[in-house]
Amino acid sequence: MQGILFDVDGILTDTAKFHFAAWSRLAQEKLQVELPVEFESNLKGVSRVDSLVRIMEYAGITDQYSLGQITALANEKNAYYVQAISQLTKADILPGIVAFLQELKEHDIPCAVASASKNAPLILKNLGLNSYFAVIADPAQVKHGKPAPDLFLAAAQKLQVPIQECVGIEDAVAGVAAIKAAGAVAVAVGDKIELQAADRVVSTTADLNYTSVNEAFRQSSS
Ligand code: BG6
Ligand code: MG
């Protein structure tokens, strides 16, 4: 194991609630649609515009909006979301994450950010975690979002580590699919059934540590 590729939303901090609140407000105010709570997990790992398209498909209104209108709506949602995440601090880092990053640093394992979010740099800054990450893959520079492998491949390339030597850490079904499609080992945080495509699933971020992630790597790549 020579590199770790981290998802951000749901791994470093819990932003799904902010994404969902912003989408719910936009859907209600601009699309006259109520989103059911189950929709939250449907949007995990999915890019901003793809999330809006999923919401429009749910509402059955996909063909009523031009590309320009879709972009404007997505920007509006982002303004609500950025306002919410501007309040994030170190206290919002999920359990066990700092200890895990510290362990990786001690073992000289470089870390990359492989988040679908264009707001990932702002989130890292607010959480005070920048110094733990050697590189950030830019989601604006890749052709296909998760579940396509592009972001994880770009992250490994930027890290200059072969993808087969990397472990990706994810909480979303789309993200696990992306890690596997890229050819890295997938460690997922969350529900064992939902995330069964991963090589290892742990229940919470507090269960992430060097020994268990390295063991998952060795078992899966042998
Ligand atoms: C992912 C989130 O990390 O980033 C998704 O899980 C989100 O819910 C996506 O839609 C894009 O984020 P942003 O901040 O660029 O709108
Ligand atoms: Mg995530």
UniProtKB/TrEMBL annotation:
Coiled coil start-end: none
Swiss-Prot/TrEMBL GO biological process terms: carbohydrate metabolic process
Site features described as Important for catalytic activity and assists the phosphoryl transfer reaction to Asp8 by balancing charge and orienting the reacting groups, chain residue numbers: S115, K146
UniProt remark on cofactor binding: Binds 2 magnesium ions per subunit.
Gene Ontology MF term list: beta-phosphoglucomutase activity; magnesium ion binding
Cofactor(s), by name: Mg(2+)
NCBIfam families registered for this protein in UniProt: bPGM, HAD-SF-IA-v3, PGMB-YQAB-SF
Superkingdom, taxonomy of origin: Bacteria
Active-site residues, Swiss-Prot/TrEMBL: D7 (nucleophile), D9 (proton donor/acceptor)
Family, similarity comment: Belongs to the HAD-like hydrolase superfamily. CbbY/CbbZ/Gph/YieH family.
Organism: Ligilactobacillus salitolerans
Annotated residues for binding of substrate: 7-9, 23, 43-48, 51, 77, 115-119, 146
Protein residues bound to Mg(2+): D7, D9, E170, D171
Keyword list, A-Z: Magnesium, Metal-binding
Protein's name according to its UniProt entry: Beta-phosphoglucomutase
